[in-house]
């Protein structure tokens, strides 16, 4: 395996140093490396609101946008937020005893 890789690297090195095509090869290698490092490499399937598979990437992106818009603006039930009295003046630093008590709880 190491010998094959070394032979491949030598071949690439010779092609890069060649007068014809070496410059184009470096751009091809850079583009290939950039494409391999992208986070999203393949299309993930998405279903529409009726459960049908969306094949077109633009429609799938629109579906995701609509879905996240809906869930981000939808109100959900939750317990009321307790109303506490205001704290006036500087806030005291947290003590070690308070930290230990909170971790044990």
Quick structural gist:
The chain is mostly helical and 105 residues long. Helices cover 54% and strands 4% of the residues.
In words, what does this structure look like?
The two termini are 56 Å apart. The model has no long low-confidence stretch (mean pLDDT 83). The protein is mainly alpha-helical. The protein has four helices and two strands; from the N terminus they run ααββαα. A two-stranded antiparallel sheet has the order 1-2.
Order of helices and strands: HHEEHH
Which sheet architecture does the biggest sheet show?
Answer: 2 strands, antiparallel
* Percent helix: 40-55%
Number of helices: 4
Radius of gyration: 29 Å
Number of strands: 2
- Gap from first CA to last CA: 56 Å
Runs with pLDDT <50, length 5+? none
Question: Strands of the largest sheet, in order across it?
Answer: 1-2
Assign the structural class, choosing from mainly alpha, mainly beta, alpha/beta, alpha+beta, or little secondary structure: mainly alpha
């Amino acid at each position: 395996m190491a010998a094959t890789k070394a032979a491949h690297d030598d071949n690439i090195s010779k092609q890069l140093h060649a007068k014809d095509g070496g410059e184009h090869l470096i751009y091809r290698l850079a583009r290939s490396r950039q494409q391999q490092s992208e986070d999203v490499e393949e299309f993930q399937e998405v279903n529409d609101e009726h459960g049908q598979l969306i094949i077109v990437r633009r429609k799938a992106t629109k579906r995701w946008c609509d879905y996240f818009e809906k869930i981000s603006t939808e109100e959900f039930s939750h317990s009321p937020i307790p109303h506490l009295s205001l704290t006036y003046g500087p806030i005291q630093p947290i003590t070690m005893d308070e930290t230990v008590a909170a971790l044990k709880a």
